[in-house]
């Protein structure tokens, strides 16, 4: 009996020591328990942060925590779990609340992930202004709004606000766009960038806010030309997608467009000296920006996309995409 108690005591001390050793004291708050909010919670937990997930209804929070549990176990089964902590440890780092003041208290960083409704964001940030600490950074996951649009009305701490926009799915695509407002403190931009690097993301920092940030401006330029080509009957939906999946996408999965140009000539200066005129001439033929609304072109694109992947198969296709993104990420680490 004495030996049993002794070994039990040793086990408890060992367990508690390792738990305390791995549990970081810094607190991260996640506002919004949807898909993006849950992904952020898992990312921060993978780095050992104490994460609190907030939503307005208890059932939303409990559902989100259950979904996170399922997802982490699924990631473990696929050998795709991030970080050095076990599933049990990461789950122990994440809790939930329906009290905004409880979420904000002693948090070093808040990641806002509410729906893309500007009036909702402005109301939330107005509420946060009254309770957030002077050193607490507030990053928005928005892909739509410049940070000044939902922070300009704040009576205090608007200098704490910036955009930290992830790409979907954030767990597999590491890019984060950090976008300051005109009044964001530079030190908060730097701290956010360091935090993203620490949790394994790959941040890019804009020097100022601009509509669409960087990713969407590039993505929209592609979508505009794709729409025009399909609308003009130049190419099918399947073939225009194939240009990316079997051509440009293979390059851009490893290299950016400027490094690609750099390698395709005797340096990037040589590339633009040789091909810059052609780039300009072709660009003059692009035509006006299309309005992507219901009509003949959208019906054609939708019908042909349905032929490639029916809506009933979207979930399965997303799962396949995520699995290959994980494998691609591992391969890219060998390239860089």
UniProtKB/TrEMBL annotation:
Q: Name one GO biological process term.
A: fatty acid metabolic process
Give the matching PROSITE patterns: 3HCDH
Q: Name one GO molecular function term.
A: NAD+ binding
Q: Which InterPro entries match?
A: 3-OHacyl-CoA_DH_CS, 3-OHacyl-CoA_DH_NAD-bd, 3HC_DH_C, 6-PGluconate_DH-like_C_sf, 6PGD_dom2, NAD(P)-bd_dom_sf
One Pfam family of this protein, by short name?
Answer: 3HCDH_N
Q: Where is the 3-hydroxyacyl-CoA dehydrogenase C-terminal domain?
A: 212-281
Q: Which domain of life is it from?
A: Eukaryota
Please list the residue ranges annotated as the 3-hydroxyacyl-CoA dehydrogenase NAD binding domain: 27-206
Which keywords fit this entry according to its UniProt record? Answer: Oxidoreductase
Q: Which Gene3D superfamilies match?
A: N-(1-d-carboxylethyl)-l-norvaline Dehydrogenase, domain 2, NAD(P)-binding Rossmann-like Domain
Q: What does the sequence similarity comment in the record state about its family? A: Belongs to the 3-hydroxyacyl-CoA dehydrogenase family.
Q: What is the protein name for this chain?
A: Lambda-crystallin
Query: What is the species listed in this Swiss-Prot or TrEMBL entry?
Result: Ceratitis capitata (Mediterranean fruit fly)
């Amino acid at each position: 009996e004495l030996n049993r108690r002794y070994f039990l005591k040793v086990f408890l001390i060992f367990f508690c020591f390792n738990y305390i050793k791995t549990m970081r004291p810094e607190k991260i708050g996640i506002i919004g328990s949807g898909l993006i909010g849950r992904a952020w919670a898992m990312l921060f937990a993978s780095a050992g942060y104490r994460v609190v997930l907030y939503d307005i209804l208890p059932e939303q929070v409990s559902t989100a925590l259950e979904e996170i549990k399922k997802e982490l176990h699924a990631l473990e089964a696929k050998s795709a779990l991030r970080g050095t902590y076990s599933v049990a440890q990461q789950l122990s780092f994440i809790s939930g609340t329906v009290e905004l003041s409880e979420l904000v208290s002693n948090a070093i960083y808040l990641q806002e992930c509410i729906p893309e409704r500007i009036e909702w964001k402005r109301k939330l940030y107005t509420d946060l202004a009254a309770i957030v600490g002077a050193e607490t950074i507030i990053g928005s996951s928005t892909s739509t709004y410049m940070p000044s649009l939902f922070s300009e009305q704040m009576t205090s701490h608007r200098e704490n606000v910036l955009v930290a926009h992830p790409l979907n799915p954030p767990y597999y695509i590491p890019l984060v766009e950090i976008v300051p407002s005109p009044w964001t403190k530079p030190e908060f931009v730097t701290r956010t960038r360091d935090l993203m690097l620490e949790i394994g993301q790959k941040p890019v920092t804009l020097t100022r806010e601009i509509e669409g940030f960087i990713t969407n401006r590039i993505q929209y330029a592609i979508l505009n030309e794709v729409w025009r080509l399909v609308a003009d009957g130049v190419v099918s939906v399947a073939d225009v997608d194939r240009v990316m999946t079997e051509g440009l996408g293979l390059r851009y999965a490893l290299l950016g467009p400027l490094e690609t140009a750099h390698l395709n000539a005797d340096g990037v200066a040589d590339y633009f000296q040789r091909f810059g005129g052609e780039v300009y001439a072709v660009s003059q033929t692009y035509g006006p920006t299309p309005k992507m609304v219901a009509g003949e072109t959208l019906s054609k694109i939708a019908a042909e996309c349905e032929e490639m992947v029916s809506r009933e198969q979207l979930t399965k296709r997303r799962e396949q995409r995520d699995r290959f993104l994980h494998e691609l990420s591992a391969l890219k680490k060998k390239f860089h």
